[in-house]
Specification:
Blueprint (H helix, E strand, L loop, with lengths): L14 H9 L5 H5 L5 E4 L14 E8 L4 E4 L5 E9 L2 E8 L4 H4 L5 E10 L5 E4 L2 E3 L7 E4 L8 H14 L10 H6 L5 H9 L4 H29 L15 H6 L6 H15 L5 E6 L5 H14 L3 E5 L3 H15 L6 E4 L5 H13 L4 E4 L13 E6 L7 H8 L6 E6 L5 H8 L3 E5 L10 E5 L4 H13 L3 E5 L13 H9 L8 E4 L5 H12 L5 E4 L12 E6 L7 H8 L10 E5 L5 H12 L3 H17 L19 H17 L9 H12 L5
Parallel strand pairs: 5-7, 10-15, 10-16, 11-13, 11-14, 12-13, 14-15, 17-22, 18-20, 18-21, 19-20, 21-22
Antiparallel strand pairs: 1-9, 2-4, 2-6, 3-4, 4-5, 6-7, 6-8
Helix pairs in contact: 6-7, 7-21, 7-22, 9-10, 10-11, 19-20
The protein binds adenosine-5'-diphosphate (ADP) and magnesium ion.
The site of adenosine-5'-diphosphate has 16 residues, from α10.
Length: 677
């Protein structure tokens, strides 16, 4: 049998089981070998009954006292109970709806049992539905597979054994011998055997190490190759006049040292002759927009156009206004380009981009639509970049001929993950907030605090300050929660009737949203009731209170971004997280918010709570799924892999050498499903 063979032709698998296997994404013999156990049963260490710890999986060896007795409960359910004993004690067993145990467990015979012990009301030891088998076939580590209703872990195990028996040849190794030697890795064939059927813990560790290494190595190499494909290389957009002094002079404040450093780092890239490829990382409120505007100004002075792409219309519009206030006084032509603009508006914007030297386009992914042509796009900036897929970012760059690129991210990313995501990007970090910012006091309170919250808000309004009330997006089916629209009506006619209330939600027309945001900014609205559209919305220094309703519905990064909307002025600001959530994860999230305002700490906590998949923004990131490696747990190995990949590519940059052919094929296969290579 070959690895490619249809799963149906493996011994013991007919059409019906083949279907069930295909539902688990296992269409072939080879895919089954890559269907790794999710855990293992350890049948080797036998624990005396008296010494069994509570609640842990253990194995005992005991004699059955009597054949299991059936006890009928209501609704056609049956329990089967028996007792087993060893030299040290007695254990009661219960099986549910399993009439076979009656025949399988024989009085007076010895079996191995595997399961978790609990203690009954009278102190008796109990175990529910343990696994069991005769001693001679046991004393080893057995795999536990992710199973389905149609395929038990036992059936899957049997099928894996059948594949190994029928396989014609050892599994070919795609890793060059030299790499295996350098990093002390076992062969692929051995690893795949042992990941299913290890005989010792050490073997399992060896096998895992190899398979995790493979996954990370392929992932990292793939990403590096991808980057090289889009290699920046030489550019025509070399800055001759990189002065931003005139820009700094028009600012109402002095740039922070961190901002100046970031601007200088980017300017020196842009003068080098190579296209810039830089990541600008800075917490919410650190002033990334100013850095971007300085670079746009430098490009403009040299006659080069720029484009700034944001993930949402609201953010695009906000940026448009910020860039306008920074750059319009200096004469930079600026256009907005979003999907919801009229055809006429779009045509006008496009006409400017086709003709005006040094123009700046701010927009959503409408910036990369086919109809848009740039005269000389020299600088491309994407904001909140983790929300864009690799492809979208590349598409914007392709609108110019090797333009400089800057990606801005408010999400601090741990170094190893940053390397994965951004590979060889240069990084500038804004590690300094503009002066005068105060810590935002944050509280988590139950829903019963609402009256106090309204009073608190009104007190601020009386002092001439403003506030936000953010509601989560509500599906129609969730009758338990009140949508922002309805909540607004309740507040307007009730507790907040004495102040000027505004409403902002996602279904409003951009024009209406714009008007509401402008009114809020101009101080014509005291309190803005809103869905998350303001996450990336207006910058209003006079807003000093942020109330987040049903705060448990928001992720940590999102809460952090929302909180960053206040604390921008001179007044002390407060963030109130309203939630009755009882679940531990949600409570941890809210607790974290109360304890820290450090974006890096919050990102770390977020990563721990949600895992890296979510962190990168679902599948949008374009990373292929990982089966066995864990980007959080395996950071050590990730570092090793990054060294190995760099060494390999410096030797054979495109992996075209014959000894790397198999490896390259494997990379392409891994990225095939992710559709990025
Ligand atoms: P973010 O990094 O979150 O994008 P912004 O660029 O929106 O931050 O800046 C946040 C606020 O700080 C804006 O109101 C901006 O005008 C202001 N700001 C930026 N730089 C400075 C500075 N050096 N001094 C004072 N205020 C600044
Ligand atoms: Mg920003």
């Amino acid at each position: 049998m070959k690895l490619q063979a249809d799963i149906q032709f493996v011994k013991g698998v007919g059409p019906a089981r083949a279907e069930a296997f295909k539902k688990l994404s296992v269409p072939s013999a080879g895919a089954l070998l890559r269907y790794y156990p999710r855990a293992y049963e350890d049948w080797r260490k036998i624990v005396p009954i008296r010494e069994m710890p509570v609640g842990e999986n253990v194995c005992i060896k005991a004699i059955v006292a009597y054949a299991p007795q059936e006890i009928r409960t209501g609704r056609g359910m049956s329990l089967y109970k028996t007792s087993v004993a060893d030299d040290s004690g007695v254990l009661n067993l219960t099986f549910f709806n399993n009439k076979y145990v009656k025949h399988m467990l024989k009085e007076g015979e010895t079996y191995l049992f595997f399961g978790k012990m609990t203690v009954g009301r009278y102190g008796e030891r109990e175990m529910a539905s343990p696994l069991f088998q005769k001693p001679q076939s046991a004393d080893k580590i057995r795999p536990i597979y992710p199973s389905s209703a149609a395929l038990s872990t036992k059936i899957i195990e049997k099928t894996v054994r059948a594949v190994f028996e029928e396989l014609e040849a050892p599994i070919a190794d795609f890793l060059p011998e030299s790499i295996r030697k350098t990093y002390g890795l076992c062969s692929l064939d051995w690893a795949i055997h042992k990941i299913h059927f290890p005989e010792t813990d050490a073997e399992l560790e060896e096998a895992k190490k190899r398979l995790i290494f493979d996954e990370l190595f392929l992932l990292h190499l793939g990403l590096l190759l991808l980057k090289k494909q889009k290699k920046q290389g030489r550019t025509d957009y070399v800055l001759q006049k990189p002065s931003v002094e005139a820009f700094y002079k028009t600012l109402p404040f002095t740039p922070t040292n961190a901002q100046k450093r970031a601007v200088n780092e980017a300017l020196s890239d842009m003068q080098s002759g190579e296209a810039m490829n830089r990541l600008l990382q800075g917490d919410v409120g650190s002033g990334k927009t100013l850095v971007a505007a300085a670079l746009v100004y430098a490009a403009y002075q040299n006659g080069f156009q720029s484009a700034v792409m944001a993930p949402t219309e609201v953010l695009a519009e906000q940026h448009f206004r910020s860039f306008q206030s920074f750059l319009a006084p200096l004469g930079v032509p600026i256009v907005l380009l979003t999907g919801s603009m009229t055809a006429k508006q779009k045509r006008e914007a496009q006409a400017i981009l086709e003709s005006a030297d040094g123009a700046l386009a701010v927009g959503t992914h409408a910036l990369i639509s086919e109809a848009v042509n740039y005269k000389n796009l020299g600088l491309v900036i994407t904001d909140e970049q983790h929300r864009f897929g690799v492809n979208q970012r590349a598409a914007l760059s392709e609108k110019g001929e090797n333009p400089h690129t800057l990606v801005m991210s408010a999400t601090p990313i741990p170094r190893t993950l940053g390397l994965l995501l951004y590979g060889d990007l240069n990084v500038s970090i804004l590690d300094e907030l503009p002066p005068g910012r105060q810590e935002i006091e944050t509280y988590a309170v139950p829903l019963s605090y609402h009256n106090r919250i309204y009073k608190f808000l009104l007190k601020h309004v009386a002092r001439g300050l403003q506030g936000y009330i953010v509601c989560p997006l509500v599906e129609e089916s969730e009758s338990r929660l009140i949508p922002a629209e309805q909540y607004y009506e309740i507040l307007k006619n009730g507790p907040l009737s004495s102040c000027r209330l505004g409403l902002l939600h996602g279904k409003m027309k951009p024009k209406d949203k714009d008007r509401v945001m402008r009114d809020f900014k101009d101080g014509k609205i005291d309190i803005l009731v809103s869905t998350v559209v303001i996450e990336v919305g207006v910058d209003v220094p006079n807003a000093a209170v942020m109330v987040i309703e049903n705060a448990e519905r928001f992720g940590l990064s999102q809460l952090h971004q929302l909180r960053g909307r206040v604390g921008r002025g001179k007044e002390k600001s407060t963030c109130i997280l309203v939630s009755d959530a009882q679940n531990e994860e949600a409570k941890t999230r809210l607790q974290t918010m109360c304890e820290t305002s450090d974006g890096f700490k919050i990102a770390d906590a977020d990563l721990k709570l949600r895992g890296p998949g979510d962190f990168f923004g679902d599948r949008q990131h374009g990373l292929p799924p990982l089966r066995i490696a864990d980007l959080l747990r395996d950071t050590r190995l990730l570092e090793t892999v990054q060294t190995a990949a760099a060494a390999l590519l410096s030797e054979d940059p495109s992996l075209d050498a014959p000894e790397h052919k198999a490896l390259k094929k494997q990379i392409l296969k891994m990225f095939e499903s992710a559709n990025v290579l």
